[in-house]
Design goal:
With 96 residues, the protein is mostly helical. The protein contains three helices and no strands.
Length: 96
């Protein structure tokens, strides 16, 4: 029998994944990954089977590693801010 991850471990993983998703400099990527993270963890919240919960948790850990690498690349090569984003007075690297 598989021991499911603790509630604290799941919440910690959720917070880390959400923080990483919010670190994307690209508006579209950022919103997509925040939404995807919320959907993934809502599914884990209602899961009753410990085996499926453990599998979902392990998959989320692997996805977090990929998301972190992708966020770093996105920050390196991010473009200028879109019109739908809140504009700042401080110019950034992508602003012209």
């Amino acid at each position: 029998m598989v021991t499911p991850p603790s509630r604290k471990a799941i919440l910690s993983l959720y917070a880390s994944t959400l923080r990483t998703a919010k670190s994307f400099s690209s508006y579209n990527f950022r919103n997509y990954f925040v939404s995807r993270t919320q959907d993934t963890f809502r599914g884990m919240q209602v899961e009753q089977d410990p085996t499926k919960l453990s599998q979902a948790y392990n998959m989320a850990v692997k996805e977090l590693a990929v998301l972190r690498r992708s966020a770093v690349l996105n920050q390196l090569y991010g473009g200028s801010r879109l019109a739908v984003e809140e504009q700042s007075d401080i110019r950034t690297k992508g602003d012209t």
